[in-house]
């Protein structure tokens, strides 16, 4: 079971980046079954057009945010999906409050939206790089709590995952971006500069998780992709199952007037 962080103080250093007790073969098989169920329920949620789901992935460089996104959506229907990757704010975004660009891309009814990085970058990066006054950053913690309550008020479920990668596994993945041609495009010199402040970023993440927890966080072991995808899928599937998902009833003035329902010749239905 993925650890849910709710109204409790945690230290990230105490949370596992790899769980040795998990059997890989059994876990992979179970994950595959869960991913298929997620695909079915995601499409039903889209058809019902009542609820929406916002999945937030945060983690250090090379923690595997892109990879878990790809794995999680394996059986999902692209209709009803959205992915937004947050980069450095544009001039227009800087001209607004820091949550303007976030609220603008939140999921609409029926949509499953994934944030690769998120509004938490507007606490994380300026806290470590120190280009925004601490008093300004301090106010953002409660503003984010308020913002997430507003989003959830619209029947949007928010799932927040911190992908907990070890410093050793991070180094291996950053080296792959240098050594493997198909991963060269991911390399950024700046990632190595950021790595030098690994502990500083962890300290800020720890404060974020312990302060912005009115919508709880899940800490995911991220050293191995198969564990990471399993842990995330488990939470997403549980959430979808808890929603009152139903296929919508037929809406048809034509058949209502005729007092009959359309008949389907099942022998001609394929696929």
Quick overview:
The chain has 271 residues and is α/β, with parallel strands linked by helices. 47% of the residues lie in helices and 13% in strands.
General description of the model:
The protein has eleven helices and six strands. It is α/β, with parallel strands linked by helices and 271 residues long. It has a six-stranded mixed sheet with strand order 1-6-5-2-4-3, with helices on both faces. Helix 2 crosses helix 10. It starts with a strand and ends in a 13-residue tail after the last helix. The mean pLDDT is 93.
**Widest sheet, order of strands:** 1-6-5-2-4-3
CATH fold descriptor: Rossmann fold
CATH C-level class is Alpha Beta
Number of strands: 6
Radius of gyration: 21 Å
**Largest sheet, strands/sense/barrel:** 6 strands, mixed
Order of helices and strands, N to C?
A: EHEHEHHEHHEHHHEHH
Q: What is the share of helical residues?
A: 40-55%
Query: Could you say which overall geometry the principal axes of the C-alpha atoms support?
Result: globular
CATH homologous superfamily classification: P-loop containing nucleotide triphosphate hydrolases
- Uncertain spans, ≥5 residues at pLDDT below 50? none
Tell me what the CATH architecture is. Answer: 3-Layer(aba) Sandwich
Distance between the termini: 36 Å
Beta fraction: 5-15%
């Amino acid at each position: 079971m993925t650890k849910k962080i709710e109204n409790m103080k945690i230290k990230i250093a105490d949370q596992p980046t790899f769980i040795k007790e998990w059997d890989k073969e059994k876990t992979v098989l179970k994950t595959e079954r869960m991913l298929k169920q997620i695909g079915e329920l995601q499409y039903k949620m889209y058809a019902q057009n009542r609820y929406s789901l916002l999945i937030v992935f945060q983690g250090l460089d090379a923690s595997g945010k892109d990879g878990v996104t790809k794995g999680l959506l394996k059986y999902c229907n692209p209709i009803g999906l959205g992915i937004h990757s947050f980069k450095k704010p544009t001039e227009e975004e800087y001209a607004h409050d820091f949550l303007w660009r976030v609220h603008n891309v939140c999921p609409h009814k029926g949509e499953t939206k994934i944030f690769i990085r998120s509004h938490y970058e507007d606490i994380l990066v300026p806290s470590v790089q120190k280009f925004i006054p601490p008093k300004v950053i301090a106010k953002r913690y409660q503003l984010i709590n308020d913002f997430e309550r507003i989003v959830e008020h619209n029947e949007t479920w928010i799932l927040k995952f911190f992908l907990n990668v070890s410093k050793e596994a991070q180094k291996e993945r950053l080296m792959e971006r240098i050594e493997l041609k198909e991963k060269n495009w991911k390399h950024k010199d700046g990632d190595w500069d950021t790595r030098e402040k690994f502990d500083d970023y962890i300290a800020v993440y720890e404060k974020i998780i312990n302060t912005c927890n009115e919508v709880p966080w899940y800490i995911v072991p991220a050293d191995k992709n198969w564990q990471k995808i399993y842990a995330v899928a488990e939470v997403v599937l549980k959430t979808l199952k808890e929603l009152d998902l139903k296929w919508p009833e037929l809406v048809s003035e034509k058949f209502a007037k005729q007092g009959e329902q359309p008949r389907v010749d099942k022998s001609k239905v394929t696929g």
